[in-house]
Amino acid sequence: MLELLTDYLEAALPAGRRRRVADHLDACPACSEWRAQILATIAALGCLRDDVMPAPVLAALRASFRISPGS
Known about the structure:
Layout lengths: L1 H8 L5 H13 L1 H17 L9 H10 L7
Helix pairs in contact: 2-3
């Protein structure tokens, strides 16, 4: 679901699929909360750049958001 939600937030879904995801988010409090948490994380971390924190910390943070193969 994370990949689908990410694609939804990035407007990378076809129109029909995007509408189905939007309908689900409107009807599902848990997924709606998850979306809110992701948006809050994006807002909070959006200012991070390579020169703001040590490179190993930034690399670990970026790696934690990658989806492993088969997920």
